[in-house]
Design a protein that fits this description.
Layout: H1 75-81, E1 93-100, E2 103-111, E3 117-125, E4 131-137, H2 148-155, E5 159-164, H3 167-174, H4 185-207, E6 211-221, H5 223-232, E7 240-244, H6 250-256, H7 269-279, E8 295-301, H8 309-318, E9 323-328, H9 336-350, H10 355-358, H11 363-378, H12 383-399, H13 401-409, H14 414-417, H15 421-432, H16 439-452, H17 455-471, H18 476-486, H19 492-501
Helix pairs in contact: 11-16, 11-17, 11-19, 12-16, 12-18, 13-17, 15-16
């Protein structure tokens, strides 16, 4: 069915100029990344970051809508379920604003048309813009803090990100005994409310004077990817949807585990039929075919134990054109390649600067550039620079410990080491070292890998380096001291090598 484009133009909302300050029920889905607690609404704790307080907000039940009398909905009936008053005030309230590495993270909330308040983070880069806008939605269970690190990375490319808590997250924060999926009509009401809250998020982004309303995208992970499929069939102001490790919806996920002990079989026949009749009309796979002209990116893992390949393929096939489909030799957590592919894809559709995300080139090229940088520092005969470089790496690698552990534990890399025992032992030494003392074994690992001439090993080392770039946050003091030494006289070769790695001093430091 052809998508309608008769929505009214969005009115600019007047609100405080935040920009001036500078992603039995929990078996249904699982949050990608694993870096935050299931119902966490705040950023994961990191050694160099000050915790950002969560916004306390009541979580009333959404306003009920009538249950459908038939499975099929016309497109007009579907749109009416997710309609709301765009002229109503957003009523944005700010709890705090915190600067981290030239990015300002605003802890905010705004009014939900279905009741209560939507808790969110607004992540704003330094500078005047105009910026692209991206809405990010987490997995299930999960919360807005799960994708905060990624939002900070996107900010470097010229993106203002909005990360909201889904209605089930807000309900669970108010009452930790609650489950994200209830297998009652509440699931339907919360899914409808989520889509409306996301649409209000588009209103919020486009009301900001430094956000370009023609450069809005959506990024969803796991449950967030599934719900992005539904949003894509409803909302026509979003230009591109990146859907990672997604499936057709809650019904599709429940049916993939439809065993004698699965969630659907634990319901009575009446309960099961009532839940299915409530959820199937708004199942994302039934509506992602209306996404055009928005572009779709599907990213899936061949070894994903939560999303079977058949289910992921059905979701992909249901999407309208234009679309791009990418498969990775990974599990449910997206690998580094998926993040790099996603940012490059976003660059094509919303005009961001992908090179600022992780530096130029492939992981193998990154490994080459990093080795050249390390060699130039060693050849500088500057003991202070050499010591500060090791300390800088210690700090960066310590704060990137969890994603590094996930990368090294990934079964896909095991064959890479099977033919080189020395490198395998050095990698284990690197990972076994205290978090704050990994700089030296990391450098030694790089020297060994470069000497091996093994392309697969170089590619892996580059991935470790890029993971450090994306997730490492060395202390600001160390960063200032290291770059001050690099900028000193006689270090032209070091500065040239540094530029090739993608490492740079944050402009606000």
């Amino acid at each position: 069915m052809t998508r309608s484009h008769s929505h009214k133009a969005t009115k600019k909302m007047a609100w405080p100029p935040l920009l001036a300050i500078s992603l039995a029920a929990i078996v249904i889905f699982a949050a990608c990344g694993g870096e935050a607690s299931p119902t966490s609404s705040t950023a994961p704790a990191e050694p160099t970051a000050t915790p950002i307080p969560a916004t306390a907000a009541p979580a009333p039940k959404p306003t009920p809508t009538p249950l459908p009398t038939a499975i099929a909905l016309s497109y007009e009936e579907l749109l009416s379920l997710f309609d709301y008053d765009r002229q109503a005030p957003l009523d944005i309230r700010e709890v705090s604003a915190q600067e981290q590495y030239c990015v300002v993270i605003h802890d905010i909330s705004y009014a939900s048309p279905k009741g209560g308040r939507v808790t969110a983070f607004l992540v704003v880069p330094e500078g005047p813009g105009p910026f692209a806008g991206v809405i990010l939605l987490h997995g299930l269970p999960g919360g807005r803090g799960d994708l905060l690190g990624y939002a900070r990375d996107l900010a470097k490319t010229g993106v203002v990100s909005l990360l909201i808590d889904a209605p089930f997250t807000r309900r669970m924060l108010a009452d930790p005994t609650e489950e994200p999926v209830t297998f009652t009509e509440l699931d339907r009401e919360e899914q409808i409310q989520l889509i409306i809250d996301l649409r209000r998020g588009v209103d919020l982004l486009t009301s900001l004077r430094d956000v370009d309303p023609d450069r809005i995208a959506y990024v969803g992970s796991s449950y967030g990817a599934a719900m992005g499929g539904l949003l894509a069939g409803i909302e026509d102001r979003i230009k591109a949807y990146a859907l990672t490790m997604g499936i057709g919806g809650l019904v599709a996920r429940a049916r993939t585990i439809d065993s004698p002990t699965g969630p659907l079989q634990r319901l009575t026949e009446e309960q099961r039929e009532r839940w299915l009749s409530a959820m199937e009309p708004i199942e994302p796979i039934n509506h992602i075919g209306n996404a055009a002209p928005a572009a779709l990116l599907f990213q899936s893992g061949r070894r994903d134990l939560r999303i079977p390949q058949e289910s992921a393929t059905q979701f992909q096939q249901a999407g309208s054109e234009p679309k791009e489909i990418k498969w990775y030799d990974s599990g449910h957590n997206p690998p580094i390649e998926a993040l790099l592919d996603q940012v490059n894809w976003l660059e094509t559709h919303i005009d961001i600067d992908a090179e600022k995300f992780s530096g130029p080139g492939s992981p193998a090229e990154a490994a080459e550039a990093f080795s050249k940088l390390s060699s130039s520092i060693q050849a500088s005969d500057d003991p202070a620079l050499q010591a500060k470089w090791t300390a800088f790496l210690d700090s960066a690698l310590a704060t990137a410990a969890r994603p590094l552990q996930e990368l090294v534990n990934d079964a896909a890399i095991v064959p890479v080491f099977s033919g080189n025992t020395q490198v395998a032992e050095k990698l284990q030494e690197f990972m076994a070292a205290p978090r704050e003392e990994r700089g030296t074994p990391f450098l030694e690992l790089g020297i060994m890998i470069q000497a091996s001439g093994d392309a697969a090993l170089k590619d892996l080392y580059g991935k470790i380096f890029i993971s450090m770039l994306l997730r490492g946050e060395p202390s600001e003091a160390l960063t200032i001291e290291f770059f001050a030494l690099v900028e000193g006289p006689g270090n032209e070769e070091v500065r040239d090598a540094l530029r090739q790695t993608g490492l740079s001093k944050p402009p606000c430091l």
